[in-house]
Amino acid sequence: MNQLPQTLLLLTLLGYVLGVVASLVCLRAEKAANFCGFGIACLAALTGIAASITGLLTGATTAHESVQILPSLIPYIRFSIRLDPLSLFFTLLVSLVGLAIAIYSLGYNRQFFGRKNLGVFGAFFNSVLMATTLVFLADNAFFFLIAWELMALSTYFLVSFEHEKEESRNAGVLYFVMSHIGTGCLILGFLLLFQASGGYGFEGFHAVGVTMAAGPRNAAFILFLVGFGVKAGVIPLHIWLPVAHPAAPSNVSAMMSGVLIKTGIYGLIRVYFDFMGAPPNWWGVTILTIGTISAVLGVLYALMEHDLKRLLAYHSIENIGIILMGLGAALMFLHTGHPLLASLALIAGLYHTINHAVFKALLFLGAGAVVHATHTRNMEEMGGLVKRMPQTAFCFLVGAVAISALPPLNGFVSEWLTYQSLLQGFGTTSSLIRLMFPLGGAMLALTGALAAACFVKAYGITFLAQPRSEHAACAHEAGAPEVAGQFLLTAVCVVLGLFPTQFVRLLDPVTSQLAGFALSTQLSQANGLVLAGAKATGGSVSTLGLALMAVCLLPVPLGLWWVFARETTVRRGPTWDCGLQGLTPRMEYTATGFSKPIRMIFKALFRPRREVQREYDFSPYFAKNLRFESHVEEVFQTRIYRPLNWLVWRVSRRMRALQAGSLQAYLIYIFVTLVLLLMFAL
Amino acid sequence: MNLDLTAIVLQTVLLLALAPLITGIIKNWKARLQNRRGPPVWQPYLDLRKFFGKDMVISEHASWVFSFSPYVVFITALLAGLLVPMVTVQAPLSLFGGVLALVGLLALGRFFLALGGLDPASAFGGMGSSREMTIAAIAEPALMLAVFTMAIAAGSTDISRIVAATLGPDWNLLSPMHVLAFAALFIVLLAETGRLPVDNPATHLELTMIHEAMLLEYSGRYLALMEWGASIKQLVLMTLLVNVFFPFGLAVAAPAGLGFSLLTYGAKLLVVAGFVVIVETTNAKLRLFRVPDLLSAAFVLAGLALLSTFLFQ
Description:
Chain A is mainly α. Chain A has helices at 4-25, 30-57, 85-108, 118-137, 141-159, 166-197, 202-205, 214-232, 241-247, 250-275, 281-303, 308-335, 339-374, 385-388, 390-403, 410-425, 436-463, 470-473, 480-498, 500-514, 520-523, 543-553, 555-564, 591-594, 596-601, 603-606, 635-655, 663-681, and strands spanning 66-70, 79-82, 524-525, 530-532, 540-541, 570-573, 609-616, 623-631.
C-alpha cells in the first residue's frame, strides 16, 4: 500500500502546528503574523486536499490504516489516526473550505490591524483547522474527544475574538455551554460502547452495536444523537447556532457553518453506520423526521431574518436537515435490507454535506465582504451593492442559486439524489411507514422553494435596487485576496454542479465501506454526461447537458433581437414613480416587507407581534411621527430554553446552601461520598 | 438512448409557435364567454412583434441582473418544454432530466424573474416578487406530491416513462389516485401560470397583481422575452397535465402517427384551455391570504391521491 496519503496527511497536521507556532512567534508584528499564520494554513490545507484525493482515489478502499502519531503514556489512549475513506472524505471537505477561507483571511484580517492581536487569531485559526482534521482522523475515542474539545475551545476563542462587543461575549458563552452539554453526552455514549467492546479503539468499536443489549444500544443512539446533534445544529438543539455564527468574524463564521457543524454529521455517520451495526427501524425514522423538521423550520426562521449573517446561520440548520434526511433514509434502507439504496441515500447525504460546506462558506465570505463595506449586518441598510461590489455580488449570486437547489449548480444535484432515494424508498417496505418518503420529498420541495424565496430576498435587498443608507452608497469592493477566496469556492460550486458523475467516483470507497456498494458506475450514463438514479429506469439528469443545451438555445433570443430589434435603441430612465418627485430608497420594498406574506401564512409558528404608534394632529392619515415595531417569537427559546434556564437557576440557588465556603464541610462531603461509594462497591 | 436532433429542433419550434396561440385562445374565449368580442386569437403574436420593434427604457437603478433575467426566463421555459413529451411519447431531452429537472428549471426562471422585479427599486416590483415567491413556495409541495404519486406508480421520475406507464393497458384512468392527482395539479397549474383565482393576468396597476407587477419596468424586447417565456411556461405545464394524465394519441415511434398525435394534442390543449376559461370566468380573485387555503387543498388532494394507492390496490 502506498505511503503517499499518509505522509501528506502528517505534513498537513505538522503544517497547522507550524502555523500556530509561527503566529505566536510573530505576536508583535501583526502583518507578519497574518501572513505567516494564514499563509501556512493555505499550504497545509493544500497538502490536505492532495492527501485526501490521492487517498480516496488509490489504496484506501480496502482496509483502514492506523498510524500512531504521538507516543502514548497512558493506557487506553492511543494517539493514532486512521486513513479510511470516510475520514479522508471529510478531510477533503475541511481542507478545501479551509484553503479558501485562509486565502480570504489574508485580506479580510487587514481590518483588524492596529486593533486586535492577529497572532492569537492566526494561532487559534490554525488550531481549529488542526483539531477539526484530527476529529475526522482520530482512531481512538479518547483522542477523538481531546480533538473535539480542542476544536470547541479554539472556536470559543474565535467567536469571542471581538470581545469588546457584548454580543460576541454572550454568544461565546452560549456556544461554550451548549457545546459541553453535547460533549457530556458523547462521553457517556463512548462509555457505553467501551462497555461492549472493552477498548477505546475505533477498530474495536466496528459493528459493536450488534453485541449490545437493546437498552444500552438505544441509549447510545440517543446520547450520540444529542451529542452530535448539538454540534450540527439540529432543531431543537440549534439555539446556539444563529447566535454564535453571526457574532464571530466572517471568516470564522464561514469556518463554523461550512466545516465545524459537519463534525456533527461525521460523528453521526461514523457511529451509526460504522459502530452500531444493523439499525432498528425507528432510528432511521427518527433521523428522517428530525431532518425534515430541521429543514422546514430552519428555512422558515431564516426567512424572518433581516440580519444577513443570522439568515445564513439559519440556512445552515435547514441544510443540516436535508443532509439528515439522506442519512435517515439510508438507515431505513439498511434496516429493510436494501444496501444499494442505502448507498444512494448516503451518497445524497454526503454530496449535500460537501455542497453545503462549499456554498455556505462562499456565502459567509461574501457576507463578510458586504458587512465590512457597509458597516452593518442589517439588510435594510444595504442595497445597490451589485454596482459597487460587482465581483462579490457575482459570487454571492452563484452561491444563492446553488443553495436554493436550482439547476445547474451543486445544490440541485444533491437534492436530486435525495429525491431519488426518497422516491425509490417507497418500494422498500409495504408498511404505512413508506408514506414518509413522498411526504418527506414534499417537505423537501417546500424547503427548496422557501429557500429560493429567502435568497431572492437576501440577494435582492442586499445587492439590487438603490442603496438604502449612506454606508451602502459609498461601499467599495473587497480586496484581491477576499475576491480570490470567493472565486475559488464559486468555481468549486460550478464544478460540483456540472460534473457530478466524476465527483461521485470519490465517494465510491466511502459507500462501499459503510453500506457495501460502490455506485459510481451505475450512477453514470453516457460517458459520465448523465447522472442516473440507482435503477436505470429510475430517471436521470444531466446538469452539464442542460447547461450546454441552454447555450445552444441562446441563438433563439439573440436571433430574434437581430431580426426584429436591430434598429432599436436603449435608453436609461427613471423607474416609474406614480407621478411623484422621484423614488427614494425609503419607498423600496424592505426585507421585512418581502417576507410578510410568509409570516402571515405561518403565523401559528411565528406568533408575530407588531406595535404601531402614531402621532398626528387632525387625521391619522397624516402622521407626524410613526413608530413601528415588529417581532417574531422564537418558540424554542421562549417555550423550551427559558423555562429550562429558570429551572436550572432555581435548583442551583437551592444547592448554594451546600456550598457554604467552609473547607471542613467540603472535606466531610468528600468523606461521605467516598464511604457511600465504597458501600455501593462492596 | 440518443439525442434526436430533429426532434429537439421540431419541439422547440412547436413550443415557440404554439405558446402565444394558447394565450390568445384563452383571452379570446374568455372575452366571448363574458359577452365581449375580445382580441383575435393571433393578437399575442402581433404584440410580441410590436414589443420586439420598440425602443427600450431601462431603469437607471437597474443592474445587469435586470437585463440577464429575460434570457434566463425565456431559455429555462424552453428547456423545460424539451423535457416534456408533446406529440411523441419520448421527450427530446428526457435523458437530460425528468420531472425534478423540469420543476428546477421553472424555479430557476422564477428566481431570476423575481430578482428582475426587485432590481429597478420600484415598490410594485418588490411586491410582485414577494408574492410570487410566496405562492410558489406553497404551491411547490402540492405540485411535488402530485408528481411523486405519478412517479412512484410509474417507478420513474422520467416524464416519458410516466407517460409510457399511463399509456399501458393495465392503467385505470378513472382510478381515485389519478383523478385526485389531476385535480391537485390543475389547481397548481392555475397558481403557477398566474391565473384567476390566484392572480389576475388582465390587470395592470392594481395592488392585486403579482406576475404583471414584476414586469412593470420591462419594455421592448425584454418584455417580449418575458411575455413569451410566461406563455411557454403555461404551455409546458398544460402539456404536462394533459399528456401525463390523458396520453391518448401520442405517437410512440417518431414519424408514424405524428399527424394524428398533433391533432389529439391540439384537442386536449383546447379542452384544458376551456377549463381554464370557465374557472377564470366563474371565479373572483381570492384575497392573497386566502390563496394558501386553496393551495393546501391541492396539497391535501395530492396526499389523498397518494393514500388511495394503499386503499384501492
